[in-house]
Amino acid sequence: xxxxxxMSEADVIVRYLSWAxxxxxxxxxxxxxxGYAGQFSLGHSVFYGIGAYVFVMFFxxxxxxxxxxxxxxxxxxxxxxxxxxxxxxxLRGGYFAVGTLALSEVMRVWANNAPEVFKGGVTGVAxxxxxxxxxxxxxxxxxxxxxxxxxxxxxxKNSTLGLKLRAIRDDEDAADGLGINVLTCKIIAxxxxxxxxxxxxxxxxxxxxYVSPDSVFGTKRSLEMVLACLLGGLGTIYGPVIGGALFELxxxxxxxxxHFHLLIYGSIIVILIVFEPRGVIGxxxxxxxxxxxxxxxxxxxIVGGS
Length: 306
Hints:
Largest sheet: 2 strands, antiparallel
Number of helices: 13
Strand order of the largest sheet: 1-2
Structural class: mainly alpha
């Protein structure tokens, strides 16, 4: 991955991988609250948009160094998640999903109509990047953040917090009865999730050099996180990685069918949910089980025949 930009005529690959990295980061970040804790947020674009706009404010307006601006954007998104999470995380199931979806739409409308707060309002704002900045620098930033996100996801899943989150996902009342502070665990998961998503929003701004309310606060971005996670495997470490890469590949293949791509996306997700809710990871596990069973039967027949 590090060597790809040095290859000849690698522009197309770099552009594809940069967008694929973005979806992987977003779905891995969402997976902490949605996959591990079972809280289906449909409004995570709020944190993505906050990260993008805070980066623009600190880098573009206050002239803070780009690396520090990205870090501040991620921290600001994480702090905002506490304010949002305390009331919304008390909701359960569909109520939580609809509440977060409504929140993202409120943020989008507000950003469109408040140019004094969100630079440019509905028209958005172009970002002037440092002199000599190229798409390759953004590529390496996205690659680095992808690795960091996977490492965070791994440690969260294999920590005490991850065990508590899975208990909450399986049965919230039982987890509470066992002495787990459900709301605190949910808020910590949301903070980690929003930190990653906010960093992604800020980092992606260095690639697009443009931010608008519809591009960062729209429900499309929130749904991409969820769909990529479902496609790869919900609640797994590598599911979002596989799902993100496949999602971006599908997006490019279906680019020529603007009237049908959403229908095709929806059909794929419905088929997966019905036949294999664990996505590609679940299909892989089934194939491994079948191959293992065939090997066992073959060995048994050889031993029985001898």
